[in-house]
Amino acid sequence: MEVPLIDFEKLDGEKRSETMALLHQACEKGGFFQIENHGIDKDLMDKVKDLVNQHYEENMKESFYESEIAKGLEKKSITSYADWESSFFIWHRPNSNINEIPNLSDDLCKTMDAYINQLIKLAEKLSELMCENLGLEKDYIKEAFSGSKGPSVGTKVAKYPQCPHPELVRGLREHTDAGGIILLLQDDQVPGLQFHKDGKWVEIPPSKNNSIFVNTGDQLEVVTNGKYKSTLHRVIADKNGSRISIATFYNPAGEAIISPAPKLLYPNHFRFQDYLNLYGSTKFADKGPRFESMKKLFAF
């Protein structure tokens, strides 16, 4: 199965409708897709990856291979509850902790901040396009995610080190993401990411030309009343390479109250007889307008 590819350049041309439909289908049917021509500076993206790889080699690699999980794998005594990853988490919004993380170089901090500033604009644009496809107000998702200081934004920086026994351990166990919109800058050489769809695991290839990989999280599923679903995914450990993953989460603020958008709810709290009365005159018409009529009649 091919991963849907959304070309943002086509949003400004005659293929806008086709591109919007592709985005909607990707969010509805799979919950994962790639974006190209997204407007983020590709030199900046390359620099982020280079500096993260450098930080891992200088500050994290040795301690990882001396850790209990690595030693347990050598003895083949590792449990299924372990993840073969080396990671740290950076908060960006509403408050940053980047200067509190040990051993991050000034260059990495400044480069990451510049990258995140551009990525947040992409996340906001993507949320607006989703709202358009769902028939919601342009800023509905952003406002739903906002606390007093806006949405919460953070990045998990991870390396999935070369693994001598990948058959014994996951890089990262199966899960859905708790938040909203996840934008991933990933390795362009080493595979490992897989998503679950239609009863099968779909392998996500390494990202070429610095495309951004996107998946939807649990809170977007709630806001969209299940139209856009979060999807189970995992990372497979690799025997031949070390994979980089820089996943940024555009999430609700901790104080945000999350609920389905009223426009996307089925009608509720109505008498069945009232529905039957409407059904009698619209039986052979599409059910959508019938539901909308019931919403209007019994909204409270």
From TrEMBL:
Start and end residues of each Fe2OG dioxygenase domain: 149-252
EC primary class: oxidoreductase
InterPro entries for the chain: DIOX_N (IPR026992), IPNS-like_FE2OG_OXY (IPR044861), IPNS-like_sf (IPR027443), Oxoglu/Fe-dep_dioxygenase_dom (IPR005123), Plant_2OG-oxidoreductases (IPR050295)
Transmembrane segments: none
UniProt catalytic activity: 1-aminocyclopropane-1-carboxylate + L-ascorbate + O2 = ethene + L-dehydroascorbate + hydrogen cyanide + CO2 + 2 H2O
GO biological-process terms attached to the record: ethylene biosynthetic process
GO molecular function: 1-aminocyclopropane-1-carboxylate oxidase activity; L-ascorbic acid binding; metal ion binding
Annotated keywords: Ethylene biosynthesis, Iron, Metal-binding, Oxidoreductase, Vitamin C
Biochemical pathway: Alkene biosynthesis; ethylene biosynthesis via S-adenosyl-L-methionine; ethylene from S-adenosyl-L-methionine: step 2/2
Enzyme Commission number(s): 1.14.17.4
Protein name as annotated: aminocyclopropanecarboxylate oxidase
Family: Belongs to the iron/ascorbate-dependent oxidoreductase family.
Organism from which the protein derives: Rhododendron simsii
